[in-house]
Amino acid sequence: MMRDFLLTVLLAAIGLQALAIDHKGITSTQLSPDRFTLIENATPGTILIDENEDGGVMIAARNLQEDFGRVSGNRATLVFRPDSSRLIIVGTLKSRYINELITEKKIDGTELKGKNEKYLMTVVDHPLPGVKEALVIAGSDKRGVIYGIYELSEQIGVSPWYDWADVPVVLQQNLSIARGSYTAGEPAVKYRGIFLNDEAPCLTTWVLNTYGTQYGDHRFYARVFELILRLRGNFLWPAMWSWSFYADDPENSKTAHEMGIIIGTTHHEPMARNHQEWARKRNEYGAWDYSTNQEVIDRFFREGIERASGTEDLITIGMRGDGDTPMGAKEGEDHKYVPRDEDNIKLLEKIIKNQRQIIQEASGKAPEKTPQVWAIYKEVQRYFDMGLRVPDDVIMLLCDDNWGNVRRLPRGEKERNHPGGWGMYYHFDYVGAPRNTKWLNVTPIQNMWEQLQLTYDYGVDKIWIVNVGDLKPMEYPITLFLDMAWNPGKFTVDNLLDHTREFCAQQFGEEQAEEASRILNVYSKYNGRVTPEMLDRHTYNIETGEWKKVSDEYVKLEAEALRQYLTLKPEYRDAYQQLIRYPVQAMANLYEMYYAQAMNHKLYKENNPQANAWADKVEAAFKRDKELSHQYNKVMAGGKWDGMMIQKKIGYTSWNDNFPEDTLPEIHRIADPEKAVGGYLFTGKDDVVVIEAEHYFEAKDAPEAKWTVIPHMGRTLSGMAVMPYSKPIGSASLSYKMQIPKDVTEVTVHVVVKSTLAFHDDEGHEYTIGFEGGEEKTINFNADLNEKPENIYTTFYPTVARRVVRKEAKLPLPATADGVQTLIVKPLDPGIVFQKIIVDFGGYQDTYLFMDESPNQRIAP
């Protein structure tokens, strides 16, 4: 017994570090007498359950059968009578087998009696007559044992996301578990759940494609319920935009109750009625206005409470306007109705009083015997702050600002001690001002942790519910949210990212966890900077290089995700695509598109023909967005998620997505770009002018040779040379116009040319530079580029290896009326390829790429 106790303590300490499952490292592929065998030679152990056990426990036990099949290749046997010397016994305190073990003091019933949703998993020797040993999973209640069953599923290698993210299962011939007693204790938060919301068009389309229904039926919801339970949640606000959980399929509520999921209705759907139940019969029912239509609305309320009888449903009380609006108001116009606040408060007091009376009459019990919640959402918080209160037994549900920042927390001892307790309604997804957030996860890991820690520290521990939109692609934030809801105290600033790593280890394997978690964390951080729906060409500063920096960061992250994707075993790639790669690909592409649009507008304004190339990039990225969505919907996982990734995100002009489809961002093109050459005027910045050679103001050709742009030559943009080289240079020249402060009287001009050798004249090749109206200097750039002993190691090898020659000369600036100077460059020999010109009046920095080009625009030459 002492050995088991010490082992349990040790494993509990390990569990504090392993945040994704309770007890990391207790299973092994090695079999030995001091361990309990789960699978031997691909044959899993037998599961024993009381045939009169709760239906939800029975469902979980059958799922455990399937999980053993996923791991071993053979489905476990489930029996109602002991028929083997080694068993896995599962049950609540009502199970005759668990009761017998408690009565015989083979497990400690005091660990479970009176507890909430607690499991105990322990190995017992000789638990029942004829049984040598058993792994016992006992629960204080139905959800307690269900959580224990799914804990074992995770221990044998089945991720909670095996279905919803296609996480593969590693086949095992043998598997055992360390002897000991294991538990996760009781949850810190009573109601822990998710809200499926804003479900059109993605979730609705996927459900239609998958189930052939225009609504979520019990088959769909059973999969959602299973996921919630595997993640140790217990609560759901069902989708309600166009669906009605209760009315669409009567089996929905029955399935939830049987499986152990508590159903609630949203902050604007009181008395266990879905908004669609009213909206579909609005012509029959009349106005959603309690002051004028009380009789009909009371009847509507009563029907909801009667229908919820016999369930664990959490009843929302209070009332808002028709369709998630303020009472008597329109969404976004709350401020216009502030003068009505006092009247609305009086009306709400009446509504809540009558709702409580209806609850009592319909249930046959005192109203405080039926769990209730009041959502203090948007304008209702104003009413609360003005003094509106609900009875003591009602949970008061606070809210964030829809963007992950809690709006209010209990203040002072009186509020903190409210008997009904407090809850928090949090958002990963949102439809509303200033802009919808419906596509990808935009909540940084650290932000969620910081705000939820704050929430829990202030005693908010009755309800944690989070708006998750379509459910996908919010897989990781959902996991973190529900794990924190179970035990917020586990999570600190020091170990927070351990959770991310453990999540990735569970989905992709231990050897991939570090890199996958890094990418997941970084893309969450990047998305938290600005949501994709709010991102546009104006978001970042194009002039300072900020836009290029953030776009390059995302492109780099995409490359890193691709690199890891290619190292994965094929069976892991669908899961990785969903959880990591697609969000990174899609956002990197969006950043590239808007950066390209910003460059297109900038260059078009400057009359630069390169604007057209950036317009092409915008079109290519826009097209790629559709291709990425197609791959997610139609190709990934064999098309299993068809319709889940069709969210609009390109084309917002207001807060909502009332545009028919993604819209190509506005781009501009310069007509006849091949004729749009020369005419560049540069502006000095930071005491220097940097010019790419092809961005001249005017080019004068020789009689038989012309200035030719050699694309991509050199370290940056291109090279400029008079060609063909065999023809005379004549008076060919390039001129460069630039704006330089009038008080500058002298500059240093740096000219960067290709490291051409002196093939034409052993004395070297020359060019001249000089400002119009001023002194001209002749530069010989390659006289010492030869293999003479004095040059070969000091000059020749280093220069030809670097491929360029930079020469400089000091030049006085002639006086000009407007500060515009014209630098003229003349080659005197053939084969000179000019690459870059730098005019320095105090700001030149010696960089390998010779600095970034200065601001410029094209004017008529």
UniProtKB/TrEMBL annotation:
Domain Alpha glucuronidase N-terminal: 44-152
Membrane spanning residue stretches: none
Domain of life according to the entry: Bacteria
Swiss-Prot/TrEMBL GO biological process terms: xylan catabolic process
GO molecular function: alpha-glucuronidase activity
InterPro entries for this protein: GH115 (IPR031924), GH115_C (IPR041437), GH115_sf (IPR042301), Glyco_hydro_67_aGlcAse_N (IPR005154), Hex-like_dom2 (IPR029018)
Residue ranges of every copy of the Gylcosyl hydrolase 115 C-terminal domain listed in the record: 682-850
SUPFAM superfamilies xrefs: beta-N-acetylhexosaminidase-like domain
Keywords: Hydrolase
Protein name per UniProt: Glycosyl hydrolase family 67 N-terminus
